[in-house]
Fold these 2 entries.
Entry 1:
Amino acid sequence: MDDWKVANPGKPVGEGGRQMVQRMNDSHKPLRDWAFSFLEWKHAMWILDVGCGGGAAIYEMLRLSKDSMVHGIDYSADCVAAASEYNAPDLYFRAFIEEGDVGALPYDADKFDLVTAVETVYFWPDLSAGMKQILRVLKPGGTFAILCEVDGPERMDWDKVNFDIKVYRPEELKELLEQIGFVDVETHVKENGYMLVTGKK
Ligand SMILES: C[S@@+](CC[C@H](N)C(=O)[O-])C[C@H]1O[C@@H](n2cnc3c(N)ncnc32)[C@H](O)[C@@H]1O
């Protein structure tokens, strides 16, 4: 069995986990490139990447928003280490990477202009609780962006692996975001299944 099927992408740990998130830094680039082109990038944004894995989204967003401050959070200490290494030149200047769970975000209310979640919502045990936390830490008018490589379970080819995963459809995410209080919710789906769902506070 391939390495990536043995390690758990829902919580990459150990040397195998670090190698996995390094690979995902590259393999998720086409998804990020596609989805980030829909988002509005201004100067000096406060940004949070939830489930930041190996840190490539943090690196790219530091460059998409000049003079931004970009936080990353992940509940795997090994991911925090990998993302910190990836962003070493910016660390503690413009990049801040913490260990923590999306269900209990350690940030003040109304802090961020943009919160991103790249290939991670599948693994959150309580998606509503995570969304509520993100709504809390967003500034009024701020955007939450959910990026997924697949827009439904039939696209998912990880079915033979042994970890909990829930694959959402765009309309499910839209409905949930609206229930929680997000407004101007938009969905974008690419023909290959890439999905971006955004909502504003
Ligand atoms: C498939 S990886 C994606 C990593 C990275 N976002 C990327 O696109 O390469 C999923 C990431 O979400 C993190 N994660 C999953 N559930 C989480 C939670 N409840 N709180 C914080 N991080 C979580 C995992 O530790 C892992 O790093």
Note: Residues 3-200 form a domain with the Rossmann fold fold (CATH 3.40.50.150).
Entry 2:
Amino acid sequence: MQHRLCAFVLFALGSLVGCGPVATRAPAAAPVREDAAQITARHFDAIRHSPPQLEAFLRAMPKGADLHNHLSGAIYAEDYLEWAARDGDCVERATSTLVAPPCDAALDRPPVADALRDDALYRQLIDAWSMRDFVADSGTSGHDHFFDTFGKFHLVNKAHRGDMLARATHQAALDHAIYLELMDTLADAQIRMLVEHTPWDGDFAHAQAHLHAGMAAVLAQAKTELDTAEQRRRDELRCAGAQPDPGCAVQVRFLYQVLRGFPAPVVFAQMLAGFELAMNDARVVGINLVMPEDGYISMRDYREQMAMLDYLHGKYPRVHISLHAGELAPGLVPPDGLRFHIRAAIERGHAQRIGHGVDVMHEDHPHELLAEMARRHVLVEICPTSNRSILGIGGDDHPLPIYLAAQVPLAIATDDEGVSRSDLSREFAIAATSWNLSYGTLKTLARNSLEYAFVPGASLWQGRDGFEPVRACAAATPGAATPDPDCAAFLAGSEKARLQWQLEAQLHDFEAGIAAGR
Ligand SMILES: [Zn+2]
């Protein structure tokens, strides 16, 4: 890093002055970094109206993290198809739904492996398991087609968590992301069994006490599932070999995803399992609530679910919470349903991050809410393709510019890149184009993704309103290969800061490359 920085100093100054100490001292090095950033910003402005050039630029741009990524939605249908064929699964031709053997072609339930030899069936399944070529009609909306995909391939994703992890991290590496926070529901079957034998009277303390005895088995099962998946990921990506897949270098943490469309006893038990797991397994850093926010139980029980979170947050205050909230649009639900979800998620559900937040201007007192989000540093995870295909909201209808103007922190995320047929680079491109974002803003979004990640450790940055290094690293150039001893000690103690340092190094190299015309 140091020698690359030195080479860049020579390039930028156009002279052969010595540059040894310049490379690691912030006061002298900072203007050079600024020059490269400015050159990159000008280059970005020059190519931004060419979609192919924009995509190539943004694919190479370091992006930090993807904070909103459902593991089951991250997989492309082609992968699911291959795995299902290998497993000997069958497919119900009429509904494009995977079912367990025995298969029976006479009953229109052939082996799914037939799709690998039958182009029509292959196309049918990929379209049914994703948003590819989807055109809404009076019978099926984008919202319905999207959410219905998950039930169709559910059989195969239950059995392939490790393969899915390998695919998601491989894709993250291609997108130049270094950290994923993946949503997944662990030990699901054990929790459902536990709930069946647990009385429910609506009192959270009673429920917690009743569930307590079974929680150890749930945690053990979740740990086994994660161990198995991680081993499979390492094998699949050949992480121990001489030529490991770049996905091996991507750091992963999990958010326990609670299925908000289920009855209260299940939702509470899953929340409790998520909080317990986050306290007991460093791989799980928080929880999130998933499934359509407009569904019957999601809408009916919204306030009760926030009350559950309020209760459990009181018991487990260190566990992080991110919540889907405001993934709604006028007409999708009655007007009253648009008025309070985001505020309740923050004030009652203790959400530190909000997923989507699309209907924010329909909330009661929206400007006060925006100011509150800015003041409390509640980040919004923006998922452009998902919002467009599920809610029909994009461009000027989307609140992203309003959030930016209100100084609410934002990050770009994929949501379900496989089902959506997208990836993180494309989401950046859509954001840049839809809302005319500058390179500087995109860089802030990338830095935000690590700043607001739930990965443990102190931040590299002093505060959340800028990107000034903490005192220990004030004398170092962020991203330098050999930070001074104070900074090195600080980085050694913080996984988050190490990721942030790595992003700064990547950004430096990326900008130096653009400035050098590479
Ligand atoms: Zn989501």
Note: Residues 2-47+457-515 form one domain.
